[in-house]
Target: Branched-chain amino acid transport system ATP-binding protein
Amino acid sequence: MSIAVMTATGAPQRAVGPAQPVASAQPLLQLQGVHTHIGAYHILHGVDLAVPQGELTMLLGRNGAGKTTTLRTIMGLWQASQGRITFAGRDITRLHTPHIAHLNIAYVPENMGIFADLTVKENMLLAARQARNVAQMDTARLEWIFKLFPAVEKFWNHPAGKLSGGQKQMLAVSRAIVEPRDLLIIDEPSKGLAPVMVNNMIDAFGQLKKSGVTLLLVEQNIHFAKQLGDSVAVMDNGRVVHAGSMAALAQDEALQRQLLGLAL
Model:
């Protein structure tokens, strides 16, 4: 089972109320010299990545650069064969996925990880680990999620498998934030979405960012990345080949072409 399991003023967190981004020079998540092998294949070749606390970090790169493998290695779905991964100062390199998730890290995989045969409500309840039934779910937090993603409320009693691609993506993110999280990791949240849905997702992630949650996103939609990213890391051939400010990369067309083969 995939782990898919955080606004403007008034967004709920530990207790519902206003939140501000946390400014910190220390990364909340850090990878140092991480290598990953999948069978006979050496996919990651010494990844160094720092995700600053309270910011939204974009992980960019061409197809096959190793972005998804990096996320899956962070979550323990694939084990690092060398190197170190730390979260909030704790070494999580050898932890199993359930233990990593219990550290308040949520992961939305590229395939979204929803249960098609269950209703939207049942999908949300499964992700709300502190609740045994819908009545025990955090009502204020649900109302906040419904404002971010109205389709989740609209199709509350519908089978998740009958939702559109964009609605499924909204449900996947909603499941990830149904409980407060310290780090949200999402693989290509805008993939396959119509432009209007992409804009809705940008608005929602902008609110999530304002709540102070730390986010790490893999993204191919450059408009999405430019609108939301604070910092950026660019991967190529299993390594991070550039790290810095997203705004600085967005203004440097020569560097964009060098790193990504295109101009933003």
Notes: The beta strands are 27-38, 41-52, 56-61, 80-87, 90-91, 105-108, 183-187, 214-218, 231-236, 239-245. The chain has a mean pLDDT of 87. The radius of gyration is 18 Å. The chain has one domain: 28-259.
